[in-house]
Design goal:
The chain is an alpha/beta fold and 284 residues long. The chain folds into 2 domains: 158 residues, 3-Layer(aba) Sandwich (Rossmann fold), CATH 3.40.50; 118 residues, N-(1-d-carboxylethyl)-l-norvaline Dehydrogenase, domain 2. It is built from 13 helices and 8 strands. The strands form 2 sheets. Strands 2-1-3-4-5 form a 5-stranded parallel β-sheet, with helices on both faces. Strands 6-7-8 form a 3-stranded mixed β-sheet.
């Protein structure tokens, strides 16, 4: 079974590498074709051509605008023919746009599975992501073995939109924890405590978390090469604000956290790992 793959950013490429390492046959397309050069797999000339070669397609793109472009662009997925196809979308989308994507596939005789993941580059390379899936159950069961190659746990949430809403809610905690850890570290250093000692004590106290464990070395070494960028965090929290507004619920922490990560844009640090918020806060 040959699987199509679109989107070779940091996470997408890590997922593609994992699938290849697990013995799955891939064919890929990426807007910048050179990013596929070191994968050693066939590269399609367009999304339409890729779709004509496979029955199952996985995509991982920056946002819903990018996903929509892949559908509607010249030689895009709609022109490729979606009848009988299963599309696994691991992008973190806007909660309203995924409903459109479900409808597009359904109207074309295919199946859209929203499947955003919890985790980034390192868990992807280890097959340790957490996958959230919404969509047709038969289609999900047909491709479950693919998600099992990259996931330590899979949650099937069935209702279209549910997986995306849950992913956005999860990322509030991801961003909030990261911002709080960064601010605590800045205050610790300003108080005369070493960075290493502050992180060690936080990890034994209220700071103990998946986020601190994952980002400890980046904070210590100030290596902010991106696994998950501040731009992505800002985008996800913006989507979550839209969700809160649609539910007529307040989202104070969401708003403050989003604007903190928004500070990375004028400083040209938005493409760095979101743990680089530490550097931004340190200079305020």
């Amino acid at each position: 079974m040959k699987i199509g793959f679109i989107g070779l950013g940091h996470l997408g490429k890590a997922v593609a590498r994992r699938l290849i390492a697990e013995g799955l046959e891939l064919m890929v397309w990426n807007r910048t074709s050179g990013k596929a050069a070191d994968l050693g797999v066939p590269v399609a000339e367009s999304p339409a051509q890729l779709l004509q070669k496979v029955d199952t397609l996985m995509i991982n793109l920056f946002d819903s605008r990018a996903v929509k472009s892949v559908f509607f662009k010249k030689d895009g997925l709609i022109q490729g023919g979606l009848t009988g196809k299963i599309l696994i979308d691991t992008s973190t989308n806007h909660f309203e746009e995924v409903l459109l994507f479900h409808d597009i596939l359904k109207s074309q005789g295919g199946h859209y599975l929203e499947a955003p993941v919890l985790g980034s580059v390192i868990p992807a390379s280890q097959g340790a992501l957490v996958s959230l899936v919404s969509g047709d159950e038969k289609a999900f069961q047909a491709i479950r073995f693919i998600l099992e190659k990259i996931s330590r746990k899979i949650f099937y949430l069935e209702e279209p939109g549910a997986a995306t809403r849950m992913k956005l809610i999860n990322n509030l905690l991801l961003g909030g924890f990261m911002a709080a850890i960064a601010e605590a570290l800045v205050l610790g250093e300003a108080s005369g405590l070493s960075k290493k000692k502050t992180l060690e004590i936080l990890n034994e106290g209220a700071g103990q978390s998946m986020v601190l464990n994952a980002k400890r070395d980046k904070l210590l070494n100030e290596d902010f090469s991106s696994h998950f960028s501040s731009a992505l965090m800002y985008k996800d929290l913006h989507y979550l604000q839209d969700l809160a507004r649609s539910l007529r619920k307040s989202a104070f922490v969401t708003g403050v956290t989003k604007e903190l990560f928004g500070l990375t844009f004028p400083k040209n640090q938005d493409a760095l790992d979101f743990s680089a918020i530490y550097q931004v806060l340190k200079k305020i």
